[in-house]
Design brief:
single chain; alpha+beta; FAD/NAD(P)-binding domain; Elongation Factor Tu (Ef-tu), domain 3; 2 domains; 7-stranded mixed β-sheet; 7-stranded antiparallel β-sheet; about 30% helix; elongated; binds flavin-adenine dinucleotide
Length: about 400
């Protein structure tokens, strides 16, 4: 109905005709636009935000962890773990660094192969805008997409006019971080055209404790330690942070992508220390130091005290027998916590799940059902681990779609 009204209001002759319409001026949409534009296609990118690349600007704490030198399909979660292989092999970390170098954007390698902008993520968005400009791409901002139809062509109705194209690329991201422009439009368009979606949930997201645990742990808020966290056969090493609501920090964000409601998380509080040997050494010298003080030598004192209060009866080390010390050591290395939930899409860095990869060609990102309809980036059921993998998926999927759209 709205579509009919708009067509009448604007008239067919006022329709803006392009070869390619891209919904979403984020990482994947801009990369796709650049590549498609370079092939001589007329391209328009529509976005309801007031700036392109809003998520890029806030990513990596403003420095943007834009790729990772250790790129492998194993760093991605998807119902089909092989789907991302083709795009990753055709657009590598070296391809994105070459683009940065061409534009004089400085970058640096940090731990575990993560590449960040040396100055600011704004340098990277400026680079993308310049590339779009050179490729003759139009970017229309503050543009709300109202409706999408397909007859001979795609017709996209917006509050900034009606656009018509041969190819339509949905690069509108997932549901995470709505304040940076996320909306469910990509999923809605997929459903409208009969494409299947996988289950969707927030990922790379902090945990919330059950109310009773929140009371106990809130006094630990701000404490951070190096730990190993385990859930559903995945293990991540890194820092974990107690917050006033639950647990965060890189290792917790990583494991959140593998966690489901009701699952326990197993935390090794001292992954580099054989704490049982430490206990036995103390016992050998008949140490009268209280257990929480022994643990305070390895953990923040406050955490050691709260942990002991919850899990054991703290007493001088010489008063435990060997089995008790073995059990305490086991608990230190396998502390189980069952969160109530996660903080949800409001703070999640990514959306797990999306357009079912069975619906798309892994070579082109084009829908198998609807000719000319492409999907790129986070809207697809391909989710990266923390460390620059999600932006790399956005670049790679946008790049390959741009060769065909
Ligand atoms: C806080 C934070 C930090 C992050 N840090 C990193 C990091 O350091 N490294 C990393 O690899 N990944 C990081 N990510 C994840 C990464 O930013 C995303 O996975 C990636 O940007 C997804 O790119 P995309 O192009 O698929 O979607 P997006 O970048 O989300 O772009 C989608 C675009 O579509 C537009 N849009 C949505 N709905 C509509 C609509 N209805 N009409 C018009 N336009 C619409 C949006 O405004 C947006 O511009 C971070 C995410 C967050 C939230």
């Amino acid at each position: 109905m709205l579509y009919v009204i708009l067509i009448k209001a604007f008239g067919q002759e006022n329709m803006i005709k392009k070869d390619v319409i891209i919904i979403g001026a984020g990482a994947s949409g801009l990369m796709c636009a650049i590549e498609s534009g370079k092939r001589g296609r007329s391209v328009v990118v529509l976005d309801h935000a007031d700036k392109p690349g809003k998520k890029i600007r806030i990513s990596g704490g403003g420095s943007c962890n834009f790729t990772n030198m250790n790129m492998s399909h194993r760093n991605f979660i998807s119902n089909n773990p092989h789907f991302c292989k083709s795009a990753l092999s055709r657009f590598t970390p070296r391809d994105i660094t070459a683009m940065l170098e061409k534009h004089g954007v400085e970058y640096e390698e940090r731990e575990q192969g993560q590449l960040f902008c040396a100055k600011s993520a704004e340098d990277l968005t400026r680079m993308l805008e310049n590339e779009c400009n050179d490729a003759g791409v139009n970017i229309v901002l503050d543009c709300r997409v109202l409706d999408v139809k397909k007859a001979d062509f795609f017709i996209v109705s917006t509050d900034r006019g009606i656009f018509q194209s041969e190819s339509l690329v949905i690069a509108s991201g997932g549901l995470s971080y709505p304040r940076s422009g996320a909306s469910g439009i990509g999923h809605r368009i997929a459903k409208q055209f009969g494409l299947k979606l996988t289950d969707i949930r927030p990922a790379l997201v902090p945990f919330i404790f059950h109310p009773e645990d929140r009371k106990i742990f809130s006094e630990l808020s701000g404490i951070s330690i190096e730990a190993a966290v385990k859930c559903n056969k995945m293990v991540f090493r890194g820092s974990i942070l107690f917050t006033h609501r639950g647990l965060s920090g890189p290792a917790m964000l990583q494991i959140s992508s593998y966690w489901k409601d009701g699952d326990a998380i197993v935390i090794d509080l001292l992954p580099d220390t054989d704490i049982y040997s430490v206990f036995m050494e103390r016992q050998l010298v008949k140490s009268k130091i209280d257990m929480h003080n022994v643990l305070s030598g390895f953990l923040p004192a406050h955490l050691a005290r709260v942990w002991c209060g919850l899990n054991i009866q703290s007493k001088p080390v010489n008063q435990y027998n060997e089995k008790e010390l073995r059990d305490i050591a086991k608990q230190v290395h396998n502390w189980k916590i069952t969160p109530e939930s996660t903080e949800g899409f409001n703070t999640a860095e990514v959306t797990l799940g999306g357009i079912d990869t069975d619906e798309l060609s892994s070579k082109t990102m084009e829908s198998r059902r609807v000719k000319g309809l492409y999907f790129t980036g986070e809207v697809i059921d391909v989710t990266g681990q923390l460390g620059g993998y999600n932006l790399h998926w956005a670049w790679a999927s946008g790049f390959v779609a741009g060769q065909y759209a």
